[in-house]
């Protein structure tokens, strides 16, 4: 299976040899999916690159048809949401997001500390988000909730 890579196809200045070139358009080397940097990032080279890399990380290449494919009720193809680091200050991860909710941001930018402390705090923020947004209760939790709700006002 071919390894996929992000390929920058076009720069705003047109010539990638200059350090000030802002990437505008990229592609997945495996499936050819295209990624475009928004116009709002046209003057910020690193933010435009980070945006394209982030969109590439979220991208999943389409699977080829399988003879023993995933059944209707199987969840093998469903990915569990995960923390994605989208910004670093030096070695410190300072901004993260949820792989399933890219509009959700977790930040430790205003804090000082070791990279491990920043990462642990981002992980804690993501875990809290995961529990409130993505976690589904199992049968025993549902049963306990139903009993609790039924006996609350008695």
If you had to describe this structure to a student in words, what would you say it looks like?
By secondary structure, this protein is of the alpha+beta class. The chain has 2 domains: 6-58, no CATH class; 80-154, no CATH class. The chain contains 3 helices and 6 strands; from the N terminus they run βββαβββαα. The protein has helices spanning 45-58, 115-134, 139-151, and strands at residues 6-11, 23-28, 34-36, 83-89, 92-98, 105-107. The protein has a 3-stranded antiparallel sheet with strand order 1-2-3, with helices on one face. A hairpin with a 6-residue loop joins strand 5 and strand 6. The longest helix is centred in the last third of the chain and has 20 residues, at 115-134. The relative contact order is 0.09.
Query: Between the first and last Cα atoms, what is the distance in angstroms?
Result: 61 Å
Rounded Rg: 21 Å
Indicate the overall shape.
Answer: extended
Structural class: alpha+beta
Strand order across the largest sheet: 1-2-3
Q: Mean of the pLDDT scores?
A: 77
Largest sheet: 3 strands, antiparallel
Number of domains: 2
- Poorly predicted regions: 64-77
SSE string, helix = H, strand = E?
EEEHEEEHH
Q: List the quaternary state of the chains.
A: single chain
Short description:
The protein has 154 residues and is an alpha+beta fold. The protein has three helices and six strands, in the order E-E-E-H-E-E-E-H-H.
